[in-house]
Amino acid sequence: MIKVVVLDIEGTTSPTSSVREELYGYTRERLPGWLAENTGGDADPIIEATRAQADRPDADAAEVARILIEWLNTDVKSEPLKAAQGIICAEGFRNGALYGEFFPDVAPVLRAWRDAGLELYIYSSGSVRNQKDWFEFARGGDLSPLISGHFDLSTAGPKREAASYEKIASAIGVPPEQILFLSDHPDEVDAAAAAGWQAVGVTRPGEPNSPRGPHRWISDFADVVPN
Q1: CA 61, CA 58: separation in Å to the nearest integer?
Q2: In whole angstroms, what is the distance from residue 109 CA to residue 130 CA?
Q3: Which residues face 201 on adjacent strands?
Q4: How many C-beta atoms lie closer than 10 Å to residue 2's C-beta?
Q5: How far is Cα 64 from Cα 87, in angstroms, rounded to an integer?
Q6: Number of Cβ atoms within 10 Å of the Cβ of 65
Q7: Which pairs from 51-58 meet CB under 8 Å and 24+ separation?
Q8: Rounded to an integer, what distance in angstroms lies between the CA atom of residue 155 and that of residue 218?
Q9: What is the pLDDT of residues 167-210, one digit of tens each?
Q10: What is the pTM of this model?
Q11: Which of 98-132 are b and which e, b meaning 16 or more Cβ less than 10 Å from the residue's Cβ?
């Protein structure tokens, strides 16, 4: 019996374009200035982590900005990049420049699942801070009360490794066979299944990832009846 549903965001609850164009664009535009203005403060851990990951120990703030923007443009799953994006985009959500965008079926189905007693969690490569803002500042109304918790690269690990899903199951305190994972990425669905979770792929019109067996794939959350 399913007790917990864990959801990916990009391509699953939300259009990839809304993440890549809005959040990424907002980050890309403001990242160099934010690093320069916050050197000696909030930017220091991000600068140090970027230097280590890029093997550029002497990189100054300007070079770090170039490195992070290159990672952003090539979709590198980087913890310092996601941390910087979370801080920068928090301002955008609060000043009305950014909103969480969701497919039309998502909000009503999440409410129905909660009403049925299921716990809902988010596991995304985006930082927990960005995830929370995405749901709180959702266009059409705050969805954050529906979500019991969030996981990202720093708290769970890479999304294509079974060990990350084992870690989440342990943190939630639910046996893996009682957890359902929904994602648009076949490798993530494979990893969750390898960890003993129930896993269903999500394929939305116009999204970049294609279904791949042996898993079930759906195009509307209403097609999933956890039991």
Answers
A1: 10
A2: 22
A3: 183, 217
A4: 19
A5: 16
A6: 22
A7: 53/78, 53/79, 53/80
A8: 28
A9: 999 999 999 999 999 999 999 999 999 999 999 999 999 999 99
A10: 0.92
A11: bbbbbbeebbebbeebbeeebbbbbbbbbbbbbbb
Strands 198-202 and 4-7: unpaired
What is the chain's length?
A: 227
Q: What angle do CA 76, 77, 79 make, to 5 degrees?
A: 125
One-letter amino acid at 59 equals: A
Q: How far apart are the first and last CA of the chain?
A: 5
CA distance 204 to 198: 20
List the structure tokens of 110: 């999440």
What would the two tokens of residue 153 be? Answer: 């690269």
pLDDT, tens digit (0-9, with 9 covering 90-100), for 98-153: 999 999 999 999 999 999 999 999 999 999 999 999 999 999 999 999 999 999 99
What pLDDT, on a 0 to 100 scale, did the predictor assign at position 49?
A: 97
Q: How many CB atoms lie within 10 A of CB 159?
A: 21
